[in-house]
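Build the 3D complex.
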Amino acid sequence: MAEAAIATEQLVKRYGEIEAVRGIDLAVMPGEIFGFLGPNGAGKSTTISMLCTLLRPTSGRAAVAGFDVTRDPDSVRAAIGLVFQDPALDEQLTARENLEFHAFLYDVPRAIRAQRIAEVLGMVELADRANSKVMTFSGGMKRRLEIARGILHSPEVLFLDEPTRGLDPQTRSHIWDYLQDLRRREGITIFMTTHYMDEAEFCDRIAIIDMGRIVALGTPDELKARVGGDVITIATTDNAASAAELASKFGLTPAADNGTLRIEASDGAALIPRLVRDLSARVTAVTLRRPSLDDVFLKLTGRAIREEQAGALDRMRMMGARFGGRRR
Amino acid sequence: MAVPVAAPSRPASVRRIDTRRATLRAIYIIWYRDVLRYSRDRLRLLASLAQPLLFLLIFGTGLSSSLRGIGGGLAGAPSINYVQFIYPGIIGMAVLFTSIFSAMSIVWDREFGFLKEVLVAPIDRSAIAIGKALGGSTQAMVQGILLLVLAPIVGVTLTPLAVIELIPLIFVLAFALTTLGVVLAAGIKSMQGFQAVINFLMMPIFFLSGALFPLGNLPWWMTGLTRIDPAAYGIDPLRRVILGASGVPVAVTDRLGLTVGGQTLPLMAEVGLVLAFGVVMLGIAIWSLRRPA
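Done.
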C-alpha cells in the first residue's frame, strides 16, 4: 500500500475561542514509527483523538488507513488500535477476560481468537498472568496488557497516547522493545505521542508540535542537524557580561538557561579554550555535547520542553484546565 | 541474520466490519461483562440482601407492632399485617436500588477510563445502552427473585405459578428502572453528580412507589407525585400476585393498590405502562450516547 497510513490536511480543532490544534498537515507512511512530540497541552492528545474519531475536527481533513475520519468513522475504528493515555482496563476482570471483551467488540473470528490472545500475551510477556485479575498488576504490566489489547485485532495503525507516561525508566525501555518488536513482526504503523525527548529518538520520524502547530518534522538526525553543530553550556561568574562578550567578540548568540549560557558552535572542542581565555568573567563550568532533541525544541520554540519551566507551563496549565475534559 | 518470523494470524488488510452484527456481539459482551462482575462479587450480593432483610424484619416488625399498639392495623385490610404488605414493596426496592446502582457503572467506567475502550470500538453506540440496560436488568431481576425465598419468613405462601408470573413482572420493573439509570448515567460526568441523583431521584421514587404505604387516601399533591412514579406501576402488580397467591381476596388488594382517577388499572395495563416507560428511556439513552463529542 503506497497510500499514507495517516494523512491530514489543515486539521483544526477549536474549543470556543481557543484553538487547540491550528492546522496540521501530516503524512505518515505505512510501517513507520511516527512520534508526536511536544509539551503537555500542545495539542497532541486532541490531534490523536480526532484521528481516532473520538473528537470531531472543527475543520480540515484527516484520513486513517485510507478512510476519512468524519465520513467513515466506523471503518477507521475497525482499522486502528488505541492505547490510551490513562489506563482503560477493567480491573475486576482477568487479563484474558479483558482481551476477550476486546476480541468480541472487534469481531476477531472465533477460530483464531484464543490463539491470537495467547500470541499477544506472549509478545508482552504476560502469558503466565493471563488468569490474574488486572487489579493485581503493576503499572508497567497494565500498560503492556493495553498494548497487547491494542494490537489484538491486528489493526493497520496503532495509536499510543503517552504510552510510557508515569513508568520507571526500565519499564519504559521495555515498552520500547515491545513496540520495535511489534513493528518488525506485524508491519504495523505506529503513531505515538510523548513528551520525553529521549524516547522520540526511537522514532523513524518526529513531528514537534507546539501550541497546536507543527514546528518541525523530520528524522531525529535531521532535526538535530538543525542545531548548528555542538552545544556548549558554560557558567561564569558574570553571565550577563559574558553573554554580551560572546556576542561582540565571538559573534555567537548565547541563550540563558537556568543560570548557564548555551552556545551552539560548529567546532565546540576548539572553541572552549578560547572562551576560557578571552571572557573577562571567570568560567566556572563547561560542558560540551552533541545536540539532543531538547536543544532542537529549545531552538525552535525558545523554551525547553521540561515541565518545570515556567511561562510555557502556565499556558499549558491554563489549556489543561480548559481541555481537561477532553480525555473523556 | 534475518529469520523469517512466523506469519502472525493477521487477517488480510482492512476488514470491513458488518456493523449490525458487531453491534449484536457488543450487546452480548457488554451484558456478559456486567453479569460476570456481578456473579463474582459475593460480598455485594450478600450486602444487597441484608438491606431488604433489615427493612422487613426490623422496620416492618417495629412499625407494625407500634401501630397495633395505638389501635392501628392496616387500614381496610385487617387480614394481612404490615410486614406482608411491604414485602412486595421491599422486592421492588431491591430491584430499584440494584437497577440504579448497576447503571452507575457507566459513570464508574467513565471515571476509570474503561468506557473509552467501548466508545472507540467499531460498534454502534446503541450497543452500550442496550447492553448496559440488559446487564443491569439481569442483576436487578436476580436480586428480586432471590428475595422470593424470604416469603415463608414473612408468612406469605407462594405457589409455583405465582413465582412464574413474578419473574417477568420483576424483569419489566428492573428494565424500566435500569434504562432510567442509563439515561442519567449517560448525561452525568462525575461520581458526585450520581450521588445527587440518588438523593433527589432514587429515594423519592422509592418513597412514592407505594412500597411502604398504600397509595389511596393521600393528600392531593402526594397523590399526583405517586401517579407519575414509574416504580408504583411496577410494584402494584407484584403485590397483587404475591398477596393473591397467599389467599388475600382481590377486593383487598384492589383497595391497597394503585388507582388512577379512581379507577383500578388492570394488571396488564400497569405492566404495559412500565414497559413503555422503559422503551422510551432506552430510546433516550441511545440518542444520548450516540451524540458526537
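Chain A touches chain B through 46 residues (CB under 8 Å).
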